[in-house]
Amino acid sequence: MAVHYTKIPSMEVGATPILGINDDGEGHVEGWTEDGVTLENMYLLFDADSNPINCANEYLIYCKSVDLEVDLSSKTKGLCHYFRFLDEVGIQWDHMPRPQYQRPLYRFRDYLQALHEEIDPYTGRHKLSSNTARTYLGAAIGLYRHWLAKGINFCRSPCEFRQAKIQNDNMLGHLNKAIFIETTDLKIKPKDQPARRTDHTPHDLRPLERSKDNPELHTLIATLNTGRCYTVKRRRYVSKRISLETKLAVLLALYTGMRRAEVLSFSSALVSPPKIGKQAIELSIGPHVCCATKGGKTGEIVLPVWLMQELAHYKQSTRYKARLTKYLKQTKDGFAKKYPPLLLNNRGKPYAEGTLNARWGEIRKAIYIDHGLMSFNHKFHNLRPTYAVNLLSNCLGRRYPSDHPKHPNEPIVNPDEALALVQKRLRHSNAMTTTHYLRYWNDNDQGRRADRAYEEYLDDLFGDDTSVAVCQKILQ
Length: 476
Fold this sequence. Notes:
By secondary structure, the chain is α+β, with helices and mostly antiparallel strands. It is built from 16 helices and ten strands.
């Protein structure tokens, strides 16, 4: 049996034993006085041989009886992991080698960090969250703090204890402007939390990457091409087909920048076969066509011709007509009947946000399992900034030919013009909101001009229909 812990509903500590002598003249404990302390919901640790780990148990008793901690479960689990780790690597808790990295706490920190960075191939999540890793490490550090305060002298310091000074923002902070806290040099580097932003860029501005090292956009298109996603049944991952409606929702968000609610309420009345010679199709969306735009505002979107062709093909399909018939039968509102949603389920009900989120989660599972891209944790909304950054990239990447008489190799569109176009396509009322996309492009994708992946997996949104074959394959 490995190192383990036991929960004790009630135990008494600090009582004075009543000693006596039996008939053989031997001393024994006849009972206990009533001056002890009763501890409720106590935990005790035991080693692999079921012997109590006294150094840990005395610390837990101190936390319960002196510090009056109500819940010791997290601290107990952390100590259990710590002593289990020490048992597996074969070192003692109080053995402090000269090299710092070989001491127990440092080795435990490295173990927790590695466990945190490991990704479950099926769920795509970290096997140990950074918060849990910090809790376990903090429990082990607290053990050493306790024994150092008790006067135990280790041959070398378990770790470097430091005092940090932070600003006091409390109501009486003008009296004590600073607070000093105890800290150490043992840190867990979180990989599951967004980096702190200093440029006020929105947290949801996370376009899908398309670099060689992180081909998120390529992998999403490949998953749609495959048409396979995964759901969980009886604790097992089961493959299933990606529905046509889900694919169309992804394509609409990716190629028009529409928000989720706008995609779900996009009306089939706006869909018609494009005229020959058209390069892009501009549509007006808003409450006047039953489209749930943000703030109820009317705006313009632009669809590539090939996407309109696919939408028109789906609109004429038997699948959609059957769903539309059910929708019209159960809808009383004449205006809603005039502008029915393009995305309906098999009961004739409009797709709900929760349904689309669930389907998007199934696509993410396919990206984890089939393509091994564990870093893909995007929300559906991130397709909108993906559209914006790719549109901006395409605008800024267009240049005059090298033999141009006036502007050889110079940009055709300047940054101000590009931002104005993106602002119009995203329907931003404030130009400062759009500026975040330029900052992201400058900071993260200086190599976009030479990146051919965009032309291979996304058309340039100006009428180039090189992606028609890709889309047709997706919808098969």
